[in-house]
Amino acid sequence: MTILNRQWIYQQAPVDLVGPEHYRYEEQPLDTALGRDELLIAARYISVDPYMRIGQSGKPTYDPHPHPVGIVQQAGVVAQVLASNAAGFQPGDWVRTYSGWQTHAVLHASAVNRIDPQLAPVSTALGVLGMPGRTAWFGLTEAGKPRAGEVVVVSGAAGAVGSLVVQFAKKHGARVLAIAGGAEKCRWLQEQLGADWVLDYRAYHDHAALAAQIRQLTGGVDVYFDNVGGMVTDAVVGEIKRRARIVICGQISQYNGHLDAPTLGPRFLHHVLYQRATIQGILARDYLHRMDEMLAIVGPWVQRGEIVFEQHVLHGFEQLPQALNALFTGEHRGKLLVEV
Amino acid sequence: MTILNRQWIYQQAPVDLVGPEHYRYEEQPLDTALGRDELLIAARYISVDPYMRIGQSGKPTYDPHPHPVGIVQQAGVVAQVLASNAAGFQPGDWVRTYSGWQTHAVLHASAVNRIDPQLAPVSTALGVLGMPGRTAWFGLTEAGKPRAGEVVVVSGAAGAVGSLVVQFAKKHGARVLAIAGGAEKCRWLQEQLGADWVLDYRAYHDHAALAAQIRQLTGGVDVYFDNVGGMVTDAVVGEIKRRARIVICGQISQYNGHLDAPTLGPRFLHHVLYQRATIQGILARDYLHRMDEMLAIVGPWVQRGEIVFEQHVLHGFEQLPQALNALFTGEHRGKLLVEV
């Protein structure tokens, strides 16, 4: 038996925004005959993440080679088992996997992780209890190392990772400055997520003005969790305190159009020297084997309603790949998902 | 009794090169009457270091406040005891202290460290066995953490710190690329200091060309010990390998004229992200209390002649403060000193 599998095939690297020429829509028959330990799954939620734009660079980045052209766009997925030839899996079971931008797949059972739908909404397996949560938790705790009373600054604070970092930093007893684009995001960060201070970077036309405001609000920065780069980072780096920890989680301001030709900014390493600060790049996959540590702490917080994990869900498989652009231009808060 | 003390008084912050308006020469009578535990010392070697230019910034740097105006320029000094009212010190004893750009001083014995003239030439207390050696040793071992077989790149490699880092990295079994300005320095680095590769950065007009050569020579960088910043650093950062360690020891290209207004360069933090690299600022004073650890290892190397510690000695107290400019424009190798 075959079923119709819908796919978005990555076919050309975008220079700027994603357009119709970069992804090709395909419908393919999928043979549902299952080998031993195989599952047929149906995607329910498909992830859209900034890192996808990094894999589209022509140069080595996380991986030695860019995302291959001509295959399904790789992505995290929350799926349901439709049919199982693997012990322990039943139709209807929820799993997280990496089957990409397609509606169905036949996978070996070792390629999926079971999701407990009692713990939290299943879509959180792509958010607070998944890759973004892991990035926020280990990036903050392992590289940022916040202490109670310290000042933590988060850029891209309304995003999937940033919004969790704000809350995790508050849990550590830090005072948190959340930087985001637009008054509405800022209001949400302060009123719902508990940020001590908020800054709408769009209200500042240069890094010196932004830096002055950061200085006035915080008196200096101990931990900077950076998702954005560019002008915001230029502003924060000049305001670090002694032995500050700067965590580079993303540089989204540099992905669009200029991944291979970054923009110019003021050279700031002299501040790192004066303050004996540390800048550290972090990546979710480096902490994959430690997911249980995070779930043991963050899981109960989520269950008790102590963490806001807002999701912005676009409905319909056809919303891909335009959803990628929403990461860069959108007004969404929290985790961006496409529901199939 | 009084003696004539000659002093260079710091009186105005230079924007670019140091000129006669920035330092004032004075001759002052010095009362040689000694209180309990005091010493009268005569400077023999006076240090000239790039960090002095950092202290002349109008903004907080290492210290919350810049070097005060109207006092003797602070500096490390190798001196001889002329008279002693402190137990254990005799006239003729050699000491290291921080009495600055003046020929004489009356100091409490706690302000000096004894030098053993049998161990090595006394001037090495301002070089390989002093602050530059400590900076090179702990910066490389604590922040750079080189492993045998790794690639270590050193900028400002012919300088007081850089020339030691090259050799310490070789002692660790690393392969070393030394970057310096001018063919003569490069030849010295390769022939006398054992660098595996050398690069004269002056032969490259942009960071992309320099980066291509670094890539071709080394295949990628594990440790970058940076004394220079600017274009050289722009070039190296794009060539780092996974989990590279970048040590920021100095940014001498940014001190002259632009300390408060750094030049523009390409934003490079995305490389730090891809490679999960670390950038760490280091400062000699943070390791002052661990000097014995370094001397236990490096001291015997110096005694056995296994370390080249070249000195460039200018003769005459009047050579200060022009000697400061030589750090930025000069063709000297190793440690720059003024002999009184």
From TrEMBL, chains A, B:
Q: Name one GO molecular function term.
A: oxidoreductase activity, acting on the CH-CH group of donors, NAD or NADP as acceptor
Recorded coiled-coil stretches: none
Segments forming domain Enoyl reductase (ER): 19-338
User: Which keywords belong to this entry?
Assistant: Oxidoreductase
**Classification via InterPro entries:** ADH-like_C (IPR013149), ADH_N_2 (IPR041694), ER (IPR020843), GroES-like_sf (IPR011032), MDR_fam (IPR045010), NAD(P)-bd_dom_sf (IPR036291)
Q: Which SUPFAM superfamilies match?
A: GroES-like, NAD(P)-binding Rossmann-fold domains
Q: Which superkingdom is the protein from?
A: Bacteria
Among the Pfam families in the record, one is ADH_zinc_N
Name the record gives this protein = Zinc-binding dehydrogenase
Source organism per entry reads Duganella fentianensis
